[in-house]
Please model this.
Amino acid sequence: MQPTSPVVDTPLPLAVLFQSADLVAINKPHGLLVHRSPIASDASEFAVQILRDQLGQRVYPVHRLDRKTGGVLLFALHEAMNSAMQKQFADGLVAKTYLAIVRGYTPDEQTIDYPLRRDDGVVQDAVTVLKTLQRTEIPLAFGKHATSRYSLVELTPSTGRMHQLRKHMAHILHPIIGDRPHGCNKQNKLFLDQFSMNTMLLHANHLAFTHPQTGDHISINAPLQAEFKRMMQTLFSNAHIGFV
Model:
Protein backbone atom coordinates (compact mmCIF):
# COMPACT_ATOMS: atom_id res chain seq x y z
CA MET A 1 0.00 0.00 0.00
CA GLN A 2 1.33 3.41 -0.96
CA PRO A 3 2.32 5.72 1.92
CA THR A 4 0.22 8.86 2.34
CA SER A 5 3.24 11.11 2.81
CA PRO A 6 6.75 11.13 1.35
CA VAL A 7 9.65 9.85 3.39
CA VAL A 8 12.69 12.04 3.94
CA ASP A 9 15.42 10.03 2.21
CA THR A 10 18.50 12.05 3.17
CA PRO A 11 19.91 11.88 6.70
CA LEU A 12 20.08 14.96 8.87
CA PRO A 13 21.82 17.31 9.61
CA LEU A 14 21.16 19.19 6.40
CA ALA A 15 23.98 19.23 3.85
CA VAL A 16 25.26 22.80 3.40
CA LEU A 17 26.27 23.53 -0.21
CA PHE A 18 27.23 27.19 0.14
CA GLN A 19 27.57 29.62 3.03
CA SER A 20 28.60 33.25 3.34
CA ALA A 21 27.98 36.00 5.88
CA ASP A 22 24.43 36.53 4.62
CA LEU A 23 23.40 33.47 2.58
CA VAL A 24 23.34 29.72 3.00
CA ALA A 25 22.21 27.00 0.58
CA ILE A 26 21.35 23.43 1.50
CA ASN A 27 20.66 20.23 -0.41
CA LYS A 28 17.04 19.79 0.70
CA PRO A 29 16.01 16.16 1.13
CA HIS A 30 13.07 14.81 -0.83
CA GLY A 31 10.07 14.70 1.49
CA LEU A 32 11.11 17.58 3.75
CA LEU A 33 8.81 20.60 3.96
CA VAL A 34 10.46 24.02 3.73
CA HIS A 35 8.28 25.37 6.55
CA ARG A 36 5.19 24.45 8.55
CA SER A 37 2.04 24.19 6.46
CA PRO A 38 -1.61 23.63 7.44
CA ILE A 39 -2.04 21.28 4.46
CA ALA A 40 0.68 18.92 5.75
CA SER A 41 -0.30 18.29 9.34
CA ASP A 42 1.52 14.93 9.31
CA ALA A 43 4.94 16.64 9.18
CA SER A 44 6.97 17.29 12.31
CA GLU A 45 10.27 18.42 10.75
CA PHE A 46 10.84 21.47 8.57
CA ALA A 47 13.90 22.81 6.77
CA VAL A 48 13.59 26.28 8.34
CA GLN A 49 13.61 24.98 11.92
CA ILE A 50 16.28 22.33 11.30
CA LEU A 51 18.66 24.80 9.64
CA ARG A 52 17.98 27.44 12.29
CA ASP A 53 18.97 24.99 15.02
CA GLN A 54 21.90 23.68 12.98
CA LEU A 55 23.38 27.16 12.46
CA GLY A 56 22.22 28.66 15.74
CA GLN A 57 20.59 31.67 14.09
CA ARG A 58 17.44 32.74 12.29
CA VAL A 59 17.15 31.84 8.61
CA TYR A 60 14.84 33.12 5.87
CA PRO A 61 13.88 30.92 2.88
CA VAL A 62 14.08 33.18 -0.18
CA HIS A 63 12.28 30.72 -2.48
CA ARG A 64 10.43 27.41 -2.24
CA LEU A 65 10.78 23.81 -3.31
CA ASP A 66 7.91 21.34 -3.25
CA ARG A 67 7.96 18.92 -0.35
CA LYS A 68 8.77 16.00 -2.66
CA THR A 69 11.45 17.88 -4.64
CA GLY A 70 15.08 17.67 -3.51
CA GLY A 71 18.04 19.92 -4.24
CA VAL A 72 19.31 23.48 -3.90
CA LEU A 73 17.34 25.57 -1.41
CA LEU A 74 18.62 29.06 -0.60
CA PHE A 75 18.20 30.95 2.67
CA ALA A 76 19.09 34.50 3.69
CA LEU A 77 20.59 35.13 7.10
CA HIS A 78 19.07 38.57 7.65
CA GLU A 79 15.98 40.47 6.51
CA ALA A 80 17.72 42.85 4.09
CA MET A 81 19.25 39.97 2.13
CA ASN A 82 15.95 38.12 2.22
CA SER A 83 14.20 41.07 0.56
CA ALA A 84 16.97 41.54 -2.02
CA MET A 85 17.03 37.87 -3.02
CA GLN A 86 13.25 37.55 -3.14
CA LYS A 87 13.23 40.48 -5.57
CA GLN A 88 15.80 38.71 -7.78
CA PHE A 89 13.63 35.60 -7.88
CA ALA A 90 10.52 37.68 -8.62
CA ASP A 91 12.34 39.55 -11.41
CA GLY A 92 13.54 36.33 -13.04
CA LEU A 93 17.22 37.08 -12.38
CA VAL A 94 18.01 33.72 -10.77
CA ALA A 95 18.96 30.84 -13.10
CA LYS A 96 17.55 27.45 -12.03
CA THR A 97 17.93 24.02 -13.57
CA TYR A 98 16.40 20.73 -12.50
CA LEU A 99 16.88 17.08 -13.33
CA ALA A 100 13.92 14.73 -13.67
CA ILE A 101 13.26 11.14 -14.69
CA VAL A 102 10.08 10.98 -16.74
CA ARG A 103 7.95 8.42 -18.55
CA GLY A 104 8.67 7.74 -22.22
CA TYR A 105 11.16 9.09 -24.74
CA THR A 106 11.22 12.88 -24.67
CA PRO A 107 12.30 15.02 -27.64
CA ASP A 108 15.92 16.18 -27.80
CA GLU A 109 14.81 19.72 -26.96
CA GLN A 110 11.47 21.41 -26.45
CA THR A 111 10.15 24.71 -25.16
CA ILE A 112 6.94 24.19 -23.20
CA ASP A 113 4.95 27.42 -23.35
CA TYR A 114 1.74 26.56 -21.56
CA PRO A 115 -0.11 28.95 -19.19
CA LEU A 116 -1.09 27.56 -15.80
CA ARG A 117 -4.13 28.32 -13.68
CA ARG A 118 -3.68 29.13 -9.99
CA ASP A 119 -6.04 27.82 -7.32
CA ASP A 120 -7.80 31.21 -7.32
CA GLY A 121 -8.50 30.95 -11.05
CA VAL A 122 -5.85 33.40 -12.27
CA VAL A 123 -4.08 32.18 -15.43
CA GLN A 124 -0.34 32.91 -15.58
CA ASP A 125 2.21 32.55 -18.37
CA ALA A 126 4.59 29.62 -17.77
CA VAL A 127 7.60 28.60 -19.87
CA THR A 128 9.97 25.66 -19.38
CA VAL A 129 12.87 24.60 -21.62
CA LEU A 130 13.45 20.84 -21.79
CA LYS A 131 16.66 19.12 -22.86
CA THR A 132 16.95 15.34 -22.99
CA LEU A 133 20.16 14.03 -21.44
CA GLN A 134 19.62 10.27 -21.69
CA ARG A 135 16.99 7.71 -22.69
CA THR A 136 16.57 4.12 -21.59
CA GLU A 137 14.42 1.10 -22.35
CA ILE A 138 14.26 -1.64 -19.72
CA PRO A 139 12.76 -5.17 -19.84
CA LEU A 140 9.85 -4.33 -17.55
CA ALA A 141 6.37 -4.97 -18.91
CA PHE A 142 3.83 -2.18 -18.50
CA GLY A 143 0.28 -2.39 -19.80
CA LYS A 144 0.31 -3.69 -23.37
CA HIS A 145 4.03 -3.00 -23.75
CA ALA A 146 6.73 -5.63 -23.13
CA THR A 147 9.27 -2.98 -22.10
CA SER A 148 9.29 0.41 -20.37
CA ARG A 149 10.90 3.60 -21.63
CA TYR A 150 12.17 6.53 -19.57
CA SER A 151 14.14 9.73 -20.11
CA LEU A 152 16.47 11.79 -17.96
CA VAL A 153 15.77 15.44 -18.70
CA GLU A 154 17.15 18.82 -17.74
CA LEU A 155 14.41 21.37 -17.10
CA THR A 156 15.00 25.12 -17.07
CA PRO A 157 12.00 27.22 -16.02
CA SER A 158 11.98 30.86 -17.07
CA THR A 159 8.94 31.48 -14.87
CA GLY A 160 8.30 30.23 -11.35
CA ARG A 161 4.71 29.04 -11.13
CA MET A 162 3.49 26.61 -8.50
CA HIS A 163 4.16 23.00 -9.60
CA GLN A 164 5.21 24.36 -13.00
CA LEU A 165 7.61 21.58 -13.95
CA ARG A 166 5.27 18.86 -12.73
CA LYS A 167 2.31 20.29 -14.64
CA HIS A 168 4.33 21.00 -17.79
CA MET A 169 5.70 17.46 -17.97
CA ALA A 170 2.22 16.03 -17.45
CA HIS A 171 0.93 18.36 -20.18
CA ILE A 172 3.35 16.94 -22.77
CA LEU A 173 2.49 13.37 -21.62
CA HIS A 174 5.88 12.69 -20.04
CA PRO A 175 5.00 12.87 -16.33
CA ILE A 176 7.68 12.87 -13.66
CA ILE A 177 8.04 9.49 -11.97
CA GLY A 178 6.71 9.58 -8.41
CA ASP A 179 4.61 12.71 -8.95
CA ARG A 180 1.19 12.80 -7.34
CA PRO A 181 -1.32 14.15 -8.30
CA HIS A 182 0.04 15.37 -11.66
CA GLY A 183 1.88 12.20 -12.64
CA CYS A 184 0.85 8.71 -13.70
CA ASN A 185 -0.46 6.67 -10.77
CA LYS A 186 0.08 3.40 -12.63
CA GLN A 187 3.75 4.23 -13.22
CA ASN A 188 4.12 5.32 -9.62
CA LYS A 189 2.68 1.99 -8.45
CA LEU A 190 5.02 0.15 -10.83
CA PHE A 191 8.05 1.85 -9.27
CA LEU A 192 6.75 1.17 -5.78
CA ASP A 193 6.12 -2.51 -6.52
CA GLN A 194 9.23 -3.20 -8.61
CA PHE A 195 11.81 -0.94 -6.97
CA SER A 196 10.29 0.00 -3.56
CA MET A 197 10.61 3.61 -4.77
CA ASN A 198 8.27 6.30 -3.46
CA THR A 199 10.27 9.47 -4.13
CA MET A 200 9.37 12.03 -6.78
CA LEU A 201 12.30 12.01 -9.19
CA LEU A 202 12.70 15.78 -9.49
CA HIS A 203 15.93 17.39 -8.27
CA ALA A 204 16.91 21.09 -8.20
CA ASN A 205 20.52 20.64 -9.25
CA HIS A 206 21.73 24.18 -10.02
CA LEU A 207 21.11 27.76 -8.88
CA ALA A 208 23.02 30.84 -10.08
CA PHE A 209 22.64 34.54 -9.31
CA THR A 210 24.49 37.78 -8.71
CA HIS A 211 25.11 38.61 -5.06
CA PRO A 212 23.00 41.74 -4.36
CA GLN A 213 25.72 43.46 -2.31
CA THR A 214 29.08 42.31 -3.69
CA GLY A 215 28.13 41.77 -7.33
CA ASP A 216 29.86 38.37 -7.27
CA HIS A 217 28.49 35.59 -9.46
CA ILE A 218 27.28 32.76 -7.22
CA SER A 219 26.83 29.29 -8.72
CA ILE A 220 25.59 26.40 -6.54
CA ASN A 221 25.24 22.74 -7.50
CA ALA A 222 23.51 20.01 -5.48
CA PRO A 223 24.56 16.34 -5.78
CA LEU A 224 21.81 13.81 -6.38
CA GLN A 225 20.39 12.23 -3.27
CA ALA A 226 20.07 8.53 -2.44
CA GLU A 227 16.84 7.49 -4.16
CA PHE A 228 17.38 9.57 -7.30
CA LYS A 229 20.91 8.18 -7.54
CA ARG A 230 19.65 4.63 -7.06
CA MET A 231 17.07 5.06 -9.83
CA MET A 232 19.71 6.54 -12.12
CA GLN A 233 21.90 3.50 -11.58
CA THR A 234 18.94 1.13 -11.96
CA LEU A 235 17.47 2.64 -15.13
CA PHE A 236 20.47 4.15 -16.90
CA SER A 237 23.35 1.68 -16.93
CA ASN A 238 25.52 4.25 -18.72
CA ALA A 239 24.63 7.12 -16.38
CA HIS A 240 27.16 9.94 -16.60
CA ILE A 241 29.30 10.09 -13.48
CA GLY A 242 28.64 13.82 -13.18
CA PHE A 243 25.03 13.14 -12.23
CA VAL A 244 25.64 10.45 -9.63
